[in-house]
Specification:
Length: 293
């Protein structure tokens, strides 16, 4: 049974998901703003070449920047603290309140400058109307985005249960072996492989290249559009270890670990592949895993 105290799923706070949420909310709010201007009797938003239009643009841009900063903070916090649904709901609610306060501030400042006419409205009434509009312009897209990502995650789970459409080294059922599953930037399952056949993963900006042996024993590479950082959860508690900002290595396939003047190097015994460097950041983790084999 669902509870607001349940841990928040990562699909709501991933970098791609947060960027998509902000983009969708900005577009939704802009459309809502444009559609509501002709019918709003108590809003000062205007289009055209005048001071009120300048206030409108300034408010929208500042509100957008505040939401972006908030989402970046949320992304940072989720890596340091375990969040629940309640945390996420309160966070989004505070964003809505802050934007409503920003609108109230612009209204008061605009009236003092003679640009905006409150039409006998009190500050409390201005804030109340702003809060209602923000609930619609931000709350609705937030809910839609969350539902979309929940459905997307559910679909990914279904794809994970049926690996027939993914690139794979052998045609085995998921329960028959420990497998590594990799998704692209859109959350679509693209690659699934037995951990015993995977040698290392190499990163190149927005792409990764997986080095593995297929069922015929041939060394192959598979390129996937995603960042190395986004797939680290896929190989948690496995023999795959990050040894460099560009490399993840299967420690079970290491044939030689050498210490050079500039650091350690991992040799996987693959013809034509140079030893992979180990940077100071990951040196301790690599040595600990190598010594525990």
């Amino acid at each position: 049974m669902f509870s607001i105290y349940d841990p928040l799923p990562k699909y709501l706070t991933g970098k791609y998901q947060l960027m998509a949420t902000v983009t969708f909310a900005a577009l939704f709010s802009l459309v809502f703003l444009l559609c509501s201007i002709p019918f709003a009797h108590n809003a000062w938003f205007k289009l055209g070449e005048n001071q009120v239009f300048g206030f409108t643009v300034a408010f929208f841009l500042i509100a957008l920047v505040l939401v972006i900063i908030s989402k970046r903070m949320l992304y940072s916090v989720r890596n340091a603290k375990s969040l629940t649904y309640l945390h996420y709901i309160v966070w989004c609610a505070l964003e809505i309140v802050v934007i409503a306060l920003l609108y109230t501030f612009f209204t008061v400042e605009g009236e003092e400058m003679g640009i905006i006419d409150l039409e006998s409205m009190t500050i409390g009434e201005v804030f109340g109307d702003a809060l209602l509009n923000c609930l619609i312009s931000l709350g609705v897209p937030y809910i839609i985005a969350a539902l979309y990502f929940a459905i997307e995650d559910k679909n990914n789970t279904i794809r994970l249960m049926n690996l027939g459409a993914a690139v794979t080294d052998v045609n085995l059922e998921p329960h028959e072996e420990k497998r590594i599953t990799l998704f692209d930037n859109n959350g679509v399952l693209k690659f699934a492989i037995n951990i015993e056949n995977l040698y290392f993963i190499e990163s190149d900006d927005n792409y990764i290249q997986v080095w593995y042996r297929d069922s015929a024993g041939e060394m192959k590479q598979y390129m996937l559009r995603c960042r190395l950082k986004t797939i680290e959860d896929s190989f948690a508690d496995s023999d795959l270890v990050r040894c460099h900002r560009k490399y993840v290595v299967n420690m079970g396939k290491v044939s030689l670990l050498t210490s050079e003047r500039d650091g350690y190097y991992i040799d996987l015994g693959i013809e034509g592949v140079n030893p992979i460097p180990v940077t100071k950041t990951y040196e301790a983790a690599v040595l600990a895993r190598f010594n525990s084999r």
